[in-house]
Structure prediction request, 720 residues.
Amino acid sequence: MSKMVMTKKGKIADLRSAEEIKAERRKGRTGVYLVVPGMLVLFLFFALPVIVLLSMSLYARPEGAEIGEFVPALEFGNYVTVLSAYWSELVRSFGFALIATVLALLIGYPMAYLVAVRLRQHGLLQGILLVLLIAPFFSSFILRTQAWKQILADEGWVAQTLKLIAVLPADGHLTATPFAVVAGLTYNFLPFMVLPIYANLGRLDTRLLEASGDLYASPMTSFFKVTLPLSAPGVFAGTLLTFIPAAGDYVNAALLGNNRNTTMIGQVIDSRFFKVIDYPGAAALSFILMLSILILVTLYIRRFGTKELM
Amino acid sequence: MSPQRRQLPEDPQIRALVQAMSQRSMSRRGVLGAAGALGLGGLLAACGTGGKSAGSSASAVSVKDVSATDPTVNWANWTLYLDYDEKSKTYPTLDQFKEKTGISVSYVEDIDGNDTYYGKVQGQLKAGQDIGQDLITLTDWMAGRIIRQGYTQELDHANIPNLANLLPDLKDVDFDPGRKNSVTWQTGYAGIAWNKKKFPKGLKNVSDLWDPALKGRVTVLDEMRDTMGLLMLDRGVDITGQWGESEFGTALDDLRKNIGNGQIRQVKGNSYKSDFISGDAIAGIVWSGDIVQMNFENDDQWEFAIPEAGGTLWSDNLMVPVASPRKANAEKLMNFYYEPKVAAEVAAYVNFICPVLGAKEEMEKIDPSLVDNPLIFPTEEDLSHAHVFRALDAEEETTLGSEFQSAIGA
Prediction:
């Protein structure tokens, strides 16, 4: 660059020798070569599937066609059909995901704070708690959710106790309710909330808290004015990591929900794809889901996001 | 399909790709320019949305049978559908089969519902690929669909001499004339069941499931023909006859209403059993043999009945999927399970209707108490209460299936 000068007309003149330029170009090309594998992977496993999904969502089913047979078309009506039929499931999915995210934050933040800040001097205890935090990942997601179904079952002790103290009406139940689905989502995605916050709070400089104490801030004020703002990037990452998969999840709703007021959009896509064999409908719904998440997340980042994320 | 000038490659995957591409080039002036890309054409075909002629490409696949050199067979079946020894954790009849023929069976309980299984494998079947199973077990209507679509291999009856033992009523079925592509595995009823302790007054008809005492404790099957069949029978519809959308719609409203008011807790596939065992469900629409087996393992808690208005009758069928390279082994296995003695052993465990002649006599030796069990060896009188849901054409299958799925909230 040093050998480049601006001419009066604003053009860049290159004063380097031909050899130097060649070497420079080769270096530049090396960079391109290094990017190629990544781009190829991204193309094969992201861009191409999205294109296939998009084109599939516009396919049409010819009159009298065999099941699972569709022809390429530009059937934008598919979007209107599925959106009008499954609007409420879409809204419900985002509602459930939002509640689960807030709950996970309220439960997860104190956990992360305890492990990362309070137990900083107790390495062993901190390690044990961290392992416990990750331990659920050692067993299958489905198995854990199935286990919750057994724990919350009508004949189980949780439901029986709640009935005994009249929190739950005598004919009420816990499984097959929106409560169970949201609880399942919160439980299953909790580690995704805790870990980013933990990583962030682990870097918290406790001298800042001392300083705020020296300036007569109460511990509460110190927390809200110092700790919380400093951990914002962790909270931000945690909420995204919880909300996005929770919105598209269908395992919790399928195992812990019912067929009335807990159906989530993931279940609808699953059933359109595997049971009704309506590939265009399923693809259109997937696309709508992706797009709505993208819009919601963009708005969220715009409003609360840190610079690094933009 | 246009006559092929060049010989197609041996490998079914590559073959499917080449075929998909040739179709692609024919319809290239279609709207999707982007789809013309090589990989994309194959991808789309693999997803089962190739051109109109793609369906026939499956039957054109010819696979080399490796049975002689590879003494294995892979079998996909439903849960609780083969005799199982709790103590040794083995399937006794599969062990006998291995002893007799030297063929070891890899048995998986892979099928939770006809629709879901079809949805899972149809893309590969359509592309003429091996789905990793040499035997699959599907219900009549689904068997009919995949036979019609050319996704199964024609059986060599010379390898299945015991097929002569098949019950005469099942020898010639409308979905597979002459049993060219399928043989019956088990037959059974869909009916109603209830927990005897928690609901002592019991059920007589499907409408009894709407008793307020059962609110939120009822499960029904996600198999449309069984649940809708029973609901329609309850409304006095002859499900074997030419009923139309309005009869279906009335029964569907019954279902919608009882899901909507919380009477029905869940609509499920095979997994409904765990709800009965956990106690979340007290009554529901179920399959006959399941209840007997669950009673056996959970001290006799439930009772099964065919509703007074009638139950549905179905059969599950063994088929060899297209591109399976072990058809001869699969046929040997079919033949083995048509031996009356083996069939009786299976029936004593699974408690569905045994489709094999002579099994009743063999049952005398295994468990005489089961000989008069109408769920295994029904009389003409028993069978008169059970009806077969009429065949649907592709159009009906799609629209009614879609309505049913949206009624069950999925």
User: Anything to note?
Assistant: Residues 1-5, 25-59 of chain B have pLDDT under 50 and may be disordered. DSSP finds 16 helices and ten strands in chain B. The two ends of chain B are 37 Å apart (CA to CA).
